[in-house]
Amino acid sequence: MATLGDIGVAAGINLLSAFVFLLAFAILRLQPFNDRVYFPKWYLKGLRSSPSRSGTFVKKFVNLDFRSYLRFLNWMPEALKMPELELIDHAGLDSAVYLRIYLIGLKIFVPITFLAWAVLVPVNYTNKTLELQLKNVTSSDIDKLSISNVPDGSDRFWTHIVMAYAFTFWTCYVLLKEYEKVANMRLQFLVSEKRRPDQFTVLVRNVPPDSDESVSETVEHFFLVNHPDTYLTHQVVCNANKLAKLVKKRKSKQNWLDYYQLKYSRNNAKRPLMKTGFLGLWGKKVDAIDHHITEIKKLSDEIAEERERVLKDPKSIMPAAFVSFKSRWGAAVCAQTQQSRNPTLWLTDWAPEPRDVYWQNLSIPYVSIAVRRLIMAVAFFFLTFFFIIPIASVQALATIEGLEKAAPFLKALIEIPFIKSVIQGFLPGIVLKLFLIFLPTILMIMSKFEGFTSISSLERRSATRYYLFNLVNVFLGSVIAGSALDQLNTFLKQSANEIPKTIGVAVPMRATFFITYIMVDGWAGIAAEILMLKPLIIYHLKNTFLVKTEKDREEAMNPGSLSFNVGEPRIQLYFLLGMVYATVTPVLLPFIVVFFGLAYVVFRHQIINVYNQEYESAAAFWPDVHGRIIIALLVSHVALIGLLSTKHLAQAAPLLITLAVLTIWFYRFCKARYEPAFVRYPLQEAVMKDTLERARDSNFNLKPYLQNAYIHPVFKEEDDDEEEEVVKLENESVLVPTKRQSRRNTPVPSKMSGASSQSLPEAVPEHSVP
Amino acid sequence: MATLGDIGVAAGINLLSAFVFLLAFAILRLQPFNDRVYFPKWYLKGLRSSPSRSGTFVKKFVNLDFRSYLRFLNWMPEALKMPELELIDHAGLDSAVYLRIYLIGLKIFVPITFLAWAVLVPVNYTNKTLELQLKNVTSSDIDKLSISNVPDGSDRFWTHIVMAYAFTFWTCYVLLKEYEKVANMRLQFLVSEKRRPDQFTVLVRNVPPDSDESVSETVEHFFLVNHPDTYLTHQVVCNANKLAKLVKKRKSKQNWLDYYQLKYSRNNAKRPLMKTGFLGLWGKKVDAIDHHITEIKKLSDEIAEERERVLKDPKSIMPAAFVSFKSRWGAAVCAQTQQSRNPTLWLTDWAPEPRDVYWQNLSIPYVSIAVRRLIMAVAFFFLTFFFIIPIASVQALATIEGLEKAAPFLKALIEIPFIKSVIQGFLPGIVLKLFLIFLPTILMIMSKFEGFTSISSLERRSATRYYLFNLVNVFLGSVIAGSALDQLNTFLKQSANEIPKTIGVAVPMRATFFITYIMVDGWAGIAAEILMLKPLIIYHLKNTFLVKTEKDREEAMNPGSLSFNVGEPRIQLYFLLGMVYATVTPVLLPFIVVFFGLAYVVFRHQIINVYNQEYESAAAFWPDVHGRIIIALLVSHVALIGLLSTKHLAQAAPLLITLAVLTIWFYRFCKARYEPAFVRYPLQEAVMKDTLERARDSNFNLKPYLQNAYIHPVFKEEDDDEEEEVVKLENESVLVPTKRQSRRNTPVPSKMSGASSQSLPEAVPEHSVP
């Protein structure tokens, strides 16, 4: 058991490393040549341009204004300054609501921390159980503050039960308010938004095959009959997966060509050569530039051919379509109703944003999806509980003996003492770490296999799985100190009322471990996030070897995005720890509060200056966030029931079970009350929006606006190349680069979402909406 | 352990009692004076009239045609003769589909029985385990045929696993086919049906209060705005609960008045007297006829006053309304979509049939419903697991000592040996039996408290609860031979993999008990059902004391109805027993098959000749039936896993767990594939029906047709009294009473469902549907 002193030292080290990261960030961000790494969002919005246009050569790369270094923590208040409404406008609702997860952490845990320190810490500290029990051992200070210090059967435990009620009620109150707020924000966002194609469009899947009609005709006839007053137009979905692959391949070849051409232009004496074999390691030597030019030409031909084929071949038309309606009301009605007798045909659903569509999955038939879900559920079960088996076998191979057996020729090398110790010390850990790094990717692939049709739903599903994995393997794994497989065994062999005891007894003992975990993963990890080391390195590499034009430089930026599927489950772990330890070891709470505070500031900065969201789901993830905080509450109740039953206070169990039942009821109440706002679109809202828009802008012709909104991005990209010039000119005439601080924070229509509507001509309507 | 001989004797006794019941029924049904008890359905449809019109006095009461007694089992083939389509027309889809539950039992268990006897019985019988183990004891013949006879760790158990797979797959196949069939029948029924008000109507609840407008105005404005093209009319719901009570009270007084008047007319010498106190036991003696006449007059005044109040007072208008649309499409859209931002306001749902509405619950607000559900869930938990506590305390009171203590004045009476033995032998059992008889009523009251708005959903909810109660207290209670409370204790204290063992070991030992149970409850119980002893007695009592006119006689008939909430859970118990014992003790299967066969014939007869369904939910209960058979499958898997793990064949567990996972997946698949047909109304169907009807009968004016469809039955009843004459005349002109057998089976539009549409004038339409 660590003493308060040990924890203090660990806290010091982690605070220091966090401070170093923040300092490094503060210095790096002021250097002009890093500007595109730390402020890509503003570049993408066209509100900031490369600093290379003015000033001396040195100034282009290094900031020599020493006054700016003195205010190196300035970014923090700056990040907090932007009001929420502006933030929504600037970065989208998803990002703004994502920040509220940290905020809700603060809202929940700051009062709980104060209450716990005011009530529970004195109650725990004024006992002498541990002193009596452990006369020989120096008792840990932290344990003195925890529930372990209260003697068995003491009436003081009623304080803990009352506090458990207080904490649960407070959390539920905050959750309720927040759910209401987010639901309103979502509806407000949907109302206040500009016209967007997905408001009028429904994704129809599993169109039944018809021997006499093409898919397009079947769709048109069906909707003309069943939605006669509101149907407007539709676009069938093409299977352009192969085409997309070819285009991607050509792009990579083009990058290499650029690289070699740049190399040649710098050193005209020698034409660059390359080998044609695997990764350029072996094979025939050829002239790299010529080789790539011919390759690209070949690919271009292939692409043209494939493009032709996709557009003509009826086999490449998938039984799915995006159907657009004359009004939001029509789309809302179609999305929420069942169309056909057979509920697995003509499946209608709100169309995701065009950016959000996951095109590869649009053609999977219903039965196949049902089977895929089963397979993935079983696979995930095995992944969670048995992942340790392959890892362990690889680890066995990664020992000295294993390696010598597998690759005898390496024997001489391995026997060197230094290498030997490295292998023994690091390799097994690295294998596990590698697995954990790839886990989100594995989970994402699993979700893709399940057939979700939008990127946002893929990420939500992956997040759920990642959370469950963390709950079982990180939380329970650390508490019960065994692999998930051992746990499964334990739980199967234990009786139902032994399980909470096992957890409850172990929880207070692992407090110091989790405090260290919070500091390393939470404090230092978050501080490292803001440094953006990987994008920084990659940007400078690309900038050196590939960039020729301003456009290339834009492409070299990698702002990244929030990646909900990795980030949110990690936050949830802190909610879980905070809830479980709130009544047991209140000492842990301040560490959680610091985490939430720091993370809030850091991510607010990142969202304002760096991340570029790939899609907008209008906070569709909030029900998941809400549900997982409820799970944290329930786990805390189970742990407390177990703990108190070992403390000879079994009569507490009914009280805490009541609390758990009330919590579950609260969850169900919230689900019925607020979840529909995230799943359905109320007709009242749709009518309101329709009426407003009709009054404001009655001549707008929807049909051409919606006609091409949902074409596969491969086709769009090629069109973009031609249209881009026009768009750019328009944008440039609107936007004047400015250095004024206030201007930097002022919202301007985002280039991404505004482009398509701006570039379309406003024609005379063919049909007016009745 | 009973031998085959014992079982044979028990079977003989039960078969004999079943035969006696059937014989009594066969004789009683032929007597003309019982005609209205055994053929009320035909009287209600107007296809049969009292046999008193012709023939001699004796013939009116006793059937003297001895030939008819010779064919006393004739009703059986007769009951089976009516084809299903005619049955649907005659008794409604609910009844026809209810019969399919018995049919599905036959479809599942007949092949399983053959397979089990062909494969499992020989495999079990050709072992000698029991003979070796029990050399002293005479081993039971039944156990020799069961899985207990196979030695531990034998490879023969693989036969049982393969059979478990075969039985599960066969059951799932039958279930799938049946679900498809029933879903199609439901849709077919909805399509082929005549115009019915509920097809156009949506029940709107939780209309938000508006300070400026009445509920009626708010509803009208809301739907004119949000469903501008399809909204037609609406009816607000009045709180007429008090009025209904008064009317009911008056009716009962009227009955008494009739009784006394009849008494007086038979014996003019003495005017009947009565006491005014409780149940007429004490109080002032008054003239009964005068007393009732004044009472009725007083009530009539009160009713008129209350009626006035309900119609005028805005407080008696509830925030709910039945909103009707111009087309089925409009109603389908409104029922399936969310109307308002706040999903707890403007709740829309398909309106139940007018007969099916449960008026008392229409005004409960959303939050109150959420709280009521919680309370009832907790109450049901305690009812299931702790019901034995109050019963036991009452039983303790019902012993000799308890009674003497509670009521010392009874001491002398109790000490009489005969009464003493009766009390000791029967009273404790009777207390439990009384509780079990009232259980469905208790569950129904609980469902009503939860706020369901239709009688059919009330019955479905009660059925679910009754099933769970039976599963825990009858099945598990008999298997583990302890009260549910003991079980709860056992399960909490046992580890997760001990629980299946506990069940698995006990299951084969209880086989003979369940065989007896099936014979008593299933065979003899079903045969007693057809005798209808209670309605028979009540009818003759009423006929003697109350009936003056033909109309009174009609009211004295009590055909009853299927009462899904009691019947279905009882059938499900047989599915459960069949599934669990199919692999373990195949001897039990023929008893199950006989039950399903007998019950099918009996209930088919009852549905054709007796029951008069109170409502039509178009087989909305099928998903519940399907789900519970799946539960039976899963319980059988758990029991087999437990059993085999005690037989040293633990490696079977993964195989059977796989089977259980597949079964769960099958359930989810079916749920997604077929359940929507029972919850939603596809737009395609609605459009088809609308178009057809518009083409066929374009001048029909919907508005007056729907205007008064959903008024509270109290108002309707009073109107009926005035209108009835007209309806009767119309009906009589159509229907000529006939004695021809074929005519008796020919469907004719039911009086109940056809009346309202026939009695309404076909006016010129005000609006034509666009």
Note down, in words, how this protein is organized.
The structure is a homodimer of 770-residue chains. By secondary structure, chain A is mainly alpha-helical. Chain A has two domains: 4-194 and 367-680, no CATH class; 200-352, no CATH class. Chain A is built from 37 helices and six strands. In chain A, the strands form two sheets. Chain A has a four-stranded antiparallel beta sheet. The first copy, chain A, starts with a helix and ends in an 11-residue tail after the last helix. Chains A, B: Keywords: Calcium, Ion channel, Ion transport, Membrane, Transmembrane, Transmembrane helix, Transport. Chains A, B: Residues 722-770 are annotated as: Disordered.
What is the topological layout?
2 copies of one chain form a homodimer.
Chain A: H1 4-30, H2 35-38, H3 40-44, H4 57-61, H5 66-70, H6 75-81, H7 84-91, H8 93-125, H9 129-133, H10 141-145, H11 157-192, H12 197-200, E1 201-205, H13 215-226, E2 231-238, H14 241-266, E3 273-275, E4 285-287, H15 288-312, E5 317-325, H16 328-336, E6 347-350, H17 366-386, H18 388-397, H19 400-406, H20 411-414, H21 417-450, H22 455-480, H23 484-493, H24 499-509, H25 511-531, H26 533-545, H27 550-556, H28 564-584, H29 589-609, H30 622-646, H31 652-674, H32 676-679, H33 683-696, H34 702-707, H35 713-734, H36 741-745, H37 751-759
Antiparallel strand pairs in A: 1-5, 1-6, 2-5, 3-4
Helix pairs in contact in A: 1-25, 6-29, 7-8, 8-11, 8-28, 8-29, 11-28, 11-30, 11-31, 14-15, 16-33, 17-21, 18-21, 21-22, 22-28, 24-30, 25-29, 28-30, 30-31
